[in-house]
Amino acid sequence: MSDPENTKEAGRPSPGAGEKGGHGRPDKGTFRVVDRRHHASPDGQSPGEHSRAAERESEQAPSTGSPEAHAADEILQLRARVDELARAYARALEDQKECRLRLTRENQRVLAIEKAEVARALIETVDDLDRSLQATDASPLTTGVRVIRDSIVKRLETMGVERMSLAGQPFDPNLSEAVGLVEVADPSLYGGVVEELAAGYRIGDRVVRPAKVRVGRAPPAAA
pTM to 2 decimals? Predict the structure, then answer.
């Protein structure tokens, strides 16, 4: 095998060669030898094949600044924004639901208070009519008063007002108000309601007006 350096030197024209008659024109018999041999890489590929493979990889793998990577980043940002808005919307719906429940409870409480006030006023009217009926005899006027009284009682019933019957039951300070004590011989009536001076009323579990009662007690021991 010939030396590449010697081959290159052999291929160089000598000074003055290629010129004809000093006019600068190349001689037709002149030729140049170019070394085009490829030195194989360890993997068996030539440098040209390595460069072409690197170009294909660079074309297939999107770079950081490529449109595909930029679009992927924008999609991730939009998804995160959508998730954030969805959570905020869910919280707003929950707050709206809680607000409606609070308003409903408040409205029910206010209506219950107003209903109790109206019922209390009607109950006082029924008490006045009852006293009038006890003080009058049988007459057309008495009959008219009784009709009015009964109509008010029916109106109270339609409002859900219930008259409590406490006679003979143990005294409960949540339902009635003790205005006096009465000595009784029956031990079963000790601490119980003996007499109702004014009836008590309630709407459901809410006491509109407590009853006024007398409570029985044991007689004093004989000296």
Answer: 0.54
